[in-house]
Predict the 3D structure of the following.
Amino acid sequence: MSTKRKTVAVHAGSQLTGSKSQPVVPPIHVSAVSYFDNSDELDEALDGKDYVYSRIAAPNAALLEEAVAALEGAEACVAYASGMAALKAVFEAQNLKAGDVVVMSSDGYGVTRSLYKNLAARAGVRIEALMLTDASVAERIVALRPKLVLAESVTNPLLRVPDIRALARASHEVGAALAVDATFPSPYGQRACELGADYAIQSTTKWLNGHSDALGGSVSGTREKLAPLRAARLLGGEVLGPFEAWLTLRGVRTLPIRMKAHCEHAAHVAKRLSESPLVERVHYPGLPNHPDHAVAKQVLEGGFGGMVAFDIKGAGRPDCFRFLEAVKLARAAPSLGDVCTLVMHAASASARRMTPEERQAAGIGESLIRVSVGLEDPDDIADDLLAAVSEAMKR
């Protein structure tokens, strides 16, 4: 089959091969249990060679894993019930010991940071939060000699873009695994494994699903790297349900077409916002004045993504809350990747689990609004956002 992404998105993960199982409940494969007339075939299925119990393996999840792996340009994929479950699985697969170091982005998703801090505390592991876009970050990684480095392809919510190739070189020099949460660009915008990452992580809830109707997560990489994750999932049970897998695979079919439009719309909205005297700063990697614009052109494919963030000039939290109430077309919701435009106040949502000191160090201020740009007319989106800013700043 062609490896071109539009073709892969439509056809990968279309058909199960080699199965002799007989579902107790007919497809969508909602049956948690299947039976076999042949005992030897049942015995093999219990080792994961066929579908017999959905905690071991499930048809709809397997089809989604095949599709996501193909989109990521990876050998394999393991699907999870949520993006956070996927992130947790990567941490736990490293067999970290007391005194080990994990490096992660200081300006990334606050819930991820909170999760890793909790996991590290239990294991006696030290978390080092670094600005992974700093020029000296490779030297810092080599000096710290971590066991795991977790980066975000495009950080949430400030949209900084690290050089994944450079992070991979530094990580591998000291024997560390590099995991990349590539949710913001999606596999359409970046194949992190091809840039040197050991793990490419997606919250499939977002762009891959595209319709806000199914939670999920995935980790892609080599079969060797993913074997411990798959074995741990079998025991831990963080499996993706059949409906969620089916809905997400439905979204995958249109991913390249949707993402092309999301990227084009986001670029237009970013430009409109940057022209407003009420907007202090626009964070979008596609703008020439973005600090990582040159890096973004090298590590992002097919556009600069569908996310935009901006600071309302002179705004505090109450002003931003008025903005959320003033939008008419956009919807105030703490997620992204939908066909409709979603907005949120970063400090009280994506960075909610960070301490005030952590937010300040990351540069996440009270005036920051994050926008997941939808498929509406981009001028309608920009008009709605600017009208809401104007309404919010009326004193």
